[in-house]
Amino acid sequence: MKKIGVLIFKSFSWLLSIAPRFVLYGLADIVFIVLYYILGYRKKVVYQNLKNSFPEKTEKEIKSIQRKFFHHLSDIFIENIALIKMKPDRIRKMVEFENPEIITDLYKKNKSIVGITGHYGNWEIFIALPFFTQHLTLCVYKPLNSKFFDREFYKMRAKLGEVPVTMRDAYRTVLKYNRDNQLTILGLIADQRPPRISGNYWTMFLNQETPVFLGPEKIARKLNASVIYTHVDKVKRGKYVLKATLLFEEAANCDEYEITRTHLRLLENYIKEKPEYWLWSHKRWKHKRDPETPIHE
To answer: Which residue from 161, 190, 231, 243 puts its CA 20 to 30 A from 270's CA?
Structure first.
């Protein structure tokens, strides 16, 4: 039965990868109905996250964002299954890079990059980054519990030239390439909920006390890498535009927490502009701050 299930999934992924757009997003509309109306997948979580993040918005506005988010979530669910088997030429048509010259200039200056982003738009579209840079791109990921799906998504991320590395191995891996004089872009999704430990960095983010990973800042400062924030803008279904913002060219010159504060505020502004494209179904604010732990600006 397991082999049959694997065969069905692989066949489905292949069919989606060659299906015309109207089929792809017709299926996404069906997924939306199932998630939103039938299963009610994390609707309470999404609603409460939106309510807490935007207290100034009316009930009607919150419900509208919630519905738009579930439409978007359904889109990326179908897109990511299709991406597993999708050919490079079709992936290339899904994404544009608005200002790749920022990365090109850093390459000419012999600078490696720590690239920061959030769970916004479709973050899996970063598999297309090798189309736009001479840097070796390293994508940091968290292994999935299912060995089959972990393997499939690993192959998807690697097929265009990216090197997937686990969170645990990220610093060791980028340090090795740095010693070999290989210029890299280390891609990090920095808006996840960190494990609850006493040393967490806390700040206000989307109107709520929020713990934040300091990994991107620590790695960038140790390597004296350049730091960019790369935004994934969804311009229409199946079409994304990457936009890079150079935050710091010499991370070693930054004050403590300066990199973290800067990339968080940039992401926050993008979310406020188009909130439906952020991952509201994540239990981002599950942990509560210990009263003795300071909260930073």
So the answer is: 161
Domains: count for the chain: 1
The two tokens of residue 30 are 């069906």
Pairwise CA distance, residues 150 & 144, whole Å: 5
Provide the domain limits for residue 108.
Answer: 2-277
Number of Cβ atoms within 10 Å of the Cβ of 250: 13
Query: Do β-strands 163-166 and 208-212 pair in parallel, antiparallel, or remain unpaired?
Result: unpaired
Least confident of 50-64, 145-159, 196-210, 244-258: 196-210
> Taking the model in full, what pTM does it have?
0.94
How confident is the model at residue 290, as a pLDDT? Answer: 87
Residue 241: helix, strand or coil by DSSP? strand
Q: How far is CA 154 from the centre of its chain?
A: 15
